[in-house]
Design goal:
The complex is a heterodimer of chains A (332) and B (502). By secondary structure, chain A is mostly helical. Chain A has helices at 2-23, 25-40, 47-72, 80-96, 102-127, 131-150, 160-167, 175-193, 195-205, 207-212, 217-243, 254-264, 276-295, 300-331; strands spanning 169-170, 173-174. Chain A has one domain (48-322): Orthogonal Bundle (ABC transporter involved in vitamin B12 uptake, BtuC), CATH 1.10.3470. The two termini of chain A are 22 Å apart. By secondary structure, chain B is α/β, with parallel strands linked by helices. Chain B is 33% helix and 26% strand. Chain B has 17 helices and 24 strands. In chain B, the strands form six sheets. Chain B has a six-stranded mixed sheet with strand order 6-9-10-3-11-12, sandwiched between helices. In chain B, helix 13 crosses helix 14 (402-414). Chain B is globular. The chains are: A mainly alpha (332), B alpha/beta (502). Chains A and B meet through helix 9 and helix 10 of A and helix 10, helix 11 and strand 20 of B.
């Protein structure tokens, strides 16, 4: 009898292990990269360098955390980079030109970021337009406003305490890293623990079914895009602090970096599933590769090729493992 | 009509996931014949046609076409051999011109050194049109045409492929009387040229008027082949309905009360349904019969708030309700199990538990944070009721069988503690064992006082479960019948729109 249950349990356990491995392959990839890099360069696995990597991925990471929800809901937001630039300019303008207190300027920046995101959601829902096109338009719109407003001149002369947000340390830990981790925790909580998160996944999995279950799609969409807008604003503040200036070209091409991190992290581009921790690891992997190639003194143009290859490899691994899993399941 | 046999399908069988769709398919078509194919929804007509076209492969049986045995692997192959189907939905590219649509995929006929000779194309198109007496400008954009004209274009396209057998699936369902006359004229012309037509329709009078002969199917079986001059509407209806009541399910007791739970008054949605009045009592099962496309689902979706309606009132326990979306309906206690499980019901990327709790998630939340313990215990309470076997609540719903998926979705609505539960085709695509479990469950829910509205195309199911039956035809309530007076033939007579007294 005992052996009978044992026999039954073993494949069951193996099945579980297999599912866990396949669902979290991004960790394995990250680990593998770390091992390879630490063999290739002795400077790689030092505290300073690890914090270096984390600091480098901060801006992308903060935006990508919220971006996971967009992808999970089966939508897309191409305007994130422009929102980052816009919020950077708004916040700096309020501090430098209007001479507003820093806290108020930051709060205003956060509000503007959120409203920009919500504007996307309202246009998509109200006119039933494809998110790709709407956010392509607002990407150009927000960026254009930034250019005209600043006359293409970056804003400098920011107060030191503001610059500290981007450059300072708390003990040995860079403040931007703390902000990034906090952002990921909040987004993770909203996704995994709240009804909002559940509704996002349902919307990405089957929009029509979710609607017929009483999920108000337009409201959920407002939440998602608002949240991403807020993430952009946080990233903008960190970025502006780090460069001690609000650059008009800030965040150019950021949507692509976000997609890279999210997709490598295991959130399917078609939506219906989300892996927030995966997105963090995804951003980290991009960071490791860039950092590693830097350490090895590889031409920066090759890094662009490396990024492209990485996305392809991530997708190929994903497809192969899903096929493998389906085949196994069918056999059972 | 020549007496040359064009097509002969014998003893065709086809199953999908152990469900027999066609068990004894027989079809004979002669050259130049217009042949009707009729039967209830799910009688196996479209499966038989899809086997002929190569969309599905038959399990057994033989198909002889022009004297040769065939088994096409794709509609493309069938098309190349002269068999084509004109579907109910128009299959044209709306932005392209008439002639571009007609010759789509055959452009090589007009190509010279890679350049399209549009003049030649226009000339050939005009020739074809003249042959059939159709007057449509080959250069008009398809989207500017009427539905009837689009159907004619599809006919011309079939002709351009030298089709010898054209299958038309309910070609008249969206046409006005005058347009039907034109279509029929052209179909007759084609038949005179030696083209054979299989004419699928739900309209008995039309079949009798247009066709030379008709084949009837029921439950995947061949019921008979008759020359239309030998039969009338009554005999045809008898063939469609068959004799036996095969549901084999008997309700143990009737629990309907006099207490009206839901009342719908003067419900109307332009072009979809009108003048709809009905009510359901606590503990009652109201069956809704009618043909597919009659407006049954549309009426109920509007009650549930999934679609808009133009006018009319919904009263729940005597109180008038404003229902703007499904959320309003669910909160008030009106729930609806959708007919298309895959497209409108399940979220495949989510677990069994998450699928079940999707409609009622807010009940288990405090400050939007989901209390998973509460969620799980509510789920188990309902699932014990439903007797669902599952390995784990965290398993993905797509790993379950169709019957178990349906039970999870039923569980979803029971978690909302509905007063009114609308079930749209609750047993579609479900094996026979699970079917009975669902019947028992529906009965049990009625016993508890839930008012149940059940839309079903399976007549035996409607007749054995319902306290009353409402028949919908052309967006109107054609009849309301009580349990005693309900008979298969009466229901079908109302659904097909023929009057028994005549």
């Amino acid at each position: 009898m005992a052996s009978h249950t044992n026999k039954k349990l073993q494949p069951e356990a193996a099945k579980h292990l297999r599912e866990i491995l396949v669902n979290n392959k991004v960790f394995a990839v990250a680990l593998l990269l770390i091992v390879i890099m630490s063999f290739l360069s002795e400077r790689f696995l030092t505290t300073t360098n690890v914090f270096n990597i984390l600091r480098q991925i901060c801006i992308t990471g903060i935006v990508a955390s919220g971006f996971s929800l967009i992808i999970a809901a089966g939508e897309i937001d191409l305007s994130v980079g422009s929102i980052v630039a816009f919020v950077g300019i708004v916040t700096s303008y309020l501090m430098v030109t209007v001479k507003m207190p820093m806290v108020i300027a930051i709060l205003a920046g956060l509000l503007v970021g959120m409203l920009c995101g919500m504007l996307n959601a309202v246009i998509i829902s109200a006119l039933d337009l494809p998110p790709f096109i709407v956010t392509l338009a607002t990407q150009s719109l927000f960026r254009g406003v930034v250019y005209i407003w600043t006359n293409m001149v970056s804003i400098i002369g920011l107060p030191q305490e503001f610059v500290n947000i981007g450059q300072g340390y708390l003990g040995v830990i860079p403040i931007p890293v703390i902000i990034m981790v906090a952002t990921f925790l909040i987004v993770w909580f909203a996704t995994v623990k709240t009804s909002f998160g559940r509704h996002v996944i349902a919307m990405g999995g089957n929009k029509e079914a979710a609607y017929l279950c009483g999920v108000r799609i337009s409201r959920v969409r407002l939440g998602i895009y608002g949240m991403v807008g807020l993430c952009c604003a946080v990233a903008a503040i960190v970025l502006t602090g780090r460069t001690a200036s609000a650059q008009v070209s800030a965040g150019n091409g950021m949507e692509m970096d976000c997609i890279t991190a999210v997709v490598i992290g295991g959130t399917p581009f078609t939506g219906g599933k989300v892996n927030i921790v995966g997105t963090f690891i995804g951003a980290f992997i991009v960071g490791i590769i860039n950092n590693g190639l830097n350490l090895l003194a590889v031409d920066s143009n090759f890094q662009i090729i490396a990024k492209g290859l990485m996305i392809l490899i991530a997708l190929i691994i994903d497809r192969l493992s899903t096929n493998f899993l389906n085949k196994k399941r069918r056999k059972e | 009509m020549d007496n040359e046999l064009l097509l002969k399908m014998t003893d065709i069988q086809k199953s999908f996931n152990h469900v027999r769709a066609v068990r004894n398919g027989q079809l004979e078509i002669y050259k130049g014949e217009i042949h009707g194919l009729i039967g209830e929804n799910g009688a196996g007509k479209s499966t038989l046609m899809k086997i002929l076209l190569g969309v599905h492969q038959k399990d057994s049986g033989t198909i002889l076409f022009r004297g040769k045995e065939i088994a096409y692997k794709s509609p493309e192959e069938a098309l190349n051999n002269g068999i084509t189907m004109i579907h109910q939905e128009i299959n044209l590219v709306p932005q392209m011109s008439v002639m571009e649509n007609i010759w789509l995929g055959q452009e090589y006929l007009f190509k010279r050194a890679g350049i399209l000779n549009r003049g030649k194309m226009r000339k050939r198109t005009a020739e074809l049109m003249n042959r059939l007496g159709i007057e449509i400008n080959p250069d008009s954009v398809v989207s500017s045409l009427s539905i009837a004209q689009m159907q004619l274009i599809e006919l011309v396209r079939a002709l351009s492929r030298d089709a010898t057998l054209i299958i038309m699936d309910e070609p008249t369902s969206s046409l006005a009387q005058k347009e039907i006359a034109l279509l029929v004229k052209i179909v007759r012309m084609l038949s005179a040229e030696g083209v054979s037509i299989i004419f699928i329709s739900h309209k008995l009078d039309e079949i009798l008027n247009v066709c030379d002969s008709v084949t009837t199917m029921k439950n995947g079986e061949f019921m008979g082949r008759n020359a239309t001059c030998d039969i009338n509407e009554q005999t045809l209806l008898k063939l469609i309905v068959g004799r036996e009541n095969v549901s084999g399910f008997h309700r143990e007791g009737i629990h309907a009360t006099d207490q009206v739970v839901l009342e719908v008054r003067d419900f109307c949605s332009a072009g979809v349904f009108e003048d709809v009045n009905f009510c359901v009592h606590a503990g009652e099962i109201l069956g809704v019969a009618g043909l597919v496309g009659a407006g049954r689902t549309e009426i109920m979706r509007a009650v549930f708030g999934a679609d808009k309606h133009d006018s009319g009132e919904i009263l729940l326990e005597g109180q008038e309700l404003k229902i703007r979306n499904p959320m309003d309906a669910i909160q008030k206690g009106i729930c609806m199990l959708q007919e298309d499980r895959l497209r409108l019901g399940t979220v495949y990327s989510m677990s069994v538990l998450q699928n079940a709790s999707l409609a009622t998630l807010d009940q288990f939340c405090s400050a939007t944070v989901v209390n998973k313990k509460k969620e799980r215990s509510a789920f188990h309470e309902i699932m014990e009721d439903i007797l669902l076997k599952f390995h784990s609540e965290n398993e993905s719903i797509k790993n379950l069988s169709g019957g178990n998926q349906q039970k999870v979705l039923l569980g979803r609505w029971l978690m909302a503690h509905p007063k009114v539960l609308i079930l749209d085709e609750p047993t579609r695509g479900i094996d026979i064992g699970a079917k009975y479990e669902i019947y028992r469950l529906i009965e049990k829910l009625a016993e508890r006082g839930i008012a149940i509205i059940m839309i079903s195309s399976e007549l035996p199911e409607v007749l054995s479960l319902s306290d009353r039956v409402m028949v919908v035809r052309n967006g109107r309530i054609a009849a309301k019948l009580n349990r005693g007076e309900v008979m298969q033939e009466t229901v079908m007579a109302h659904a097909f729109g023929i009057n028994k007294e005549e």
